[in-house]
Prior knowledge:
The chain is mainly alpha-helical. The chain has helices at residues 3-27, 57-61, 76-95, 99-121, 126-142, 147-167, 175-188, 190-215, 224-251.
Amino acid sequence: MGAIAVYGMIFLFGIMIGSFLNVCILRLPEHEDIVFTPSHCTSCGHVLKWYELIPLVSFAIQGGRCRNCKEKISLQYPVIEFLNGIIYVWIFAVKGIISESVLFCICASVLIVVAVTDFRTYEIPFGCNIIIGILGILRILLDLQHWYHYVIGFFTVSGLFLLVYFITKGNGIGGGDIKLMAASGLLLGWQNIILALMLGSIAGSVIHLTLMKLKGRGRVLAFGPYLALGIFISMLYGNEIISWYLAWLFQS
């Protein structure tokens, strides 16, 4: 099978998972069932048929509207589906067709849910952190020789966050952020989770300050989206970034 066909299949699988991510983003903050409750229009309650649930295609054919009540469907749906498909292709293109890529794809999907949900509600669903933690355990099993890197990673940033949490009496950092970095540290290892924190902090500072200046956003920061971005970059390019930095440091 040619490379184009393989990546095409990966993309199609990614957009299908992206459709489920939309369900999670919509229902998890409301503590609603994400498995057994049929997909339905959020405006009129119309239970969607299978042909109304084809990722990207159904949205385009229906003109971005519900077939029953004609209300507009949020652009979030095709955007998340497309984004997840592209990310899956990106991960496999960078890491190759290996088991690690599967773990990273699942993690990336969870990070999308984390980012959107935290941005909207300032809460990170506990189940998302559990899934990333399970991925971390699987990563250890795939790399038992370096198990200690991942165990140390579990405590490295989360321990710092926990200290900040107690010092500020919960005002400086959220409990969801602590759990996210613990679970992600178990998946990435201690060096890459530190890098993820640095990248997330830089992104959060620049983007949020820009939003405060241009959009009048308040000072309260949803840190999850920026941590998710840092985790994603570190997950794909962390080793290369760290190697480049160390080479630059010792040459200086």
